[in-house]
């Protein structure tokens, strides 16, 4: 490493300096500094001459690493493991006999060892309180339900700006762990009448503002669900008393299809109906999914 310092520093100078004169000036200064640090003069001369022979135009070209197509076989290291590479090489022809495998594995896999668990990983935390090991508990990140403020006067007036919600039956308070607003999809929401504290749990696969507006239209519909008909009662008004809180959001990932997501949404809706006790006669939900 010590021998490579004169070479690497001279290489750096050649990349930076655009003229030969400037390069030689800085190399002379580098030679003097290294001699003062008691470097061998012949070693310095030899390494700088190595750099002199290099073409600067080639040195300043960015070398992008080539992506390897070799697939690694990851194995947790253990000193008692046999020679996996020799076993793999010996029997690889069996996999190569399959046409599909041959297309996937163009070359033999390389063996990559992952680190085994250390004593600390096995035991856990190292903080001791009252002669007991204290475990670190990961705190869930808090989220928030808020209006989108892109369509004031309609959906935003009904959305509560809050990070918690409460069951009107059990008085239990829950945290919201997602950042959601009127535009969020695949959500579970809580509808509450501010006049009589009745609650309803619903779900929405489409952007929530569309679902909210459908509730508003259904208030005057003959075939409306009881949650909407509730606002036809005396002294009730949907625009004044209907307040919504988006309490949970399901993330749509690449590996999850729409059918699976819809199924999960129904399961979460059932969960919150039971947890908040919104089934009739306690709430406005008529039945579970």
Task: Please describe the topology of this protein.
Layout: H1 4-16, H2 20-36, H3 41-52, H4 56-59, E1 72-76, H5 84-96, H6 99-104, E2 110-114, H7 119-123, E3 127-129, E4 132-134, E5 144-145, E6 164-166, E7 173-175, E8 179-180, E9 187-193, E10 199-204, H8 208-218, H9 226-229, H10 238-241, E11 242-249, H11 258-276
Parallel strand pairs: 1-2, 5-8
Antiparallel strand pairs: 3-4, 6-7, 9-10, 9-11
Helix pairs in contact: 1-2, 1-3, 2-3
Task: Give the overall shape, derived from the CA principal axes.
Answer: elongated
Give the strand content. 15-25%
Q: H/E series, N to C?
A: HHHHEHHEHEEEEEEEEHHHEH
First and last CA, distance: 69 Å
Q: Residue ranges: pLDDT <50 for 5 or more in a row?
A: none
Largest beta sheet: what is the strand line-up? 10-9-11
Number of domains: 3
Q: Any idea what the CATH superfamily of the largest domain is called?
A: GIY-YIG endonuclease
Oligomer: single chain
Arithmetic mean pLDDT: 88
CATH architecture of the largest domain: 3-Layer(aba) Sandwich
The first-level CATH class name of the largest domain: Alpha Beta
Q: C-alpha Rg, in Å?
A: 34 Å
Helix content: 25-40%
Q: How many separate helices?
A: 11
Backbone structural class: alpha/beta
CATH fold annotation of the largest domain: GIY-YIG endonuclease
Main beta sheet: strand number and arrangement?
3 strands, antiparallel
Counting DSSP E segments of at least 2 residues, the number of strands comes to 11
Notes on the protein architecture:
The chain has 289 residues and is α/β, with parallel strands linked by helices. The protein has three domains: 4-59; 65-138, no CATH class; 144-276, GIY-YIG endonuclease, CATH 3.40.1440.10. 37% of the residues lie in helices and 16% in strands. It has helices at 4-16, 20-36, 41-52, 56-59, 84-96, 99-104, 119-123, 208-218, 226-229, 238-241, 258-276, and strands spanning 72-76, 110-114, 127-129, 132-134, 144-145, 164-166, 173-175, 179-180, 187-193, 199-204, 242-249. A three-stranded antiparallel β-sheet has the order 10-9-11. Helix 1 packs antiparallel against helix 2 (20-36). The chain is elongated and about 100 Å long. The model has no long low-confidence stretch (mean pLDDT 88).
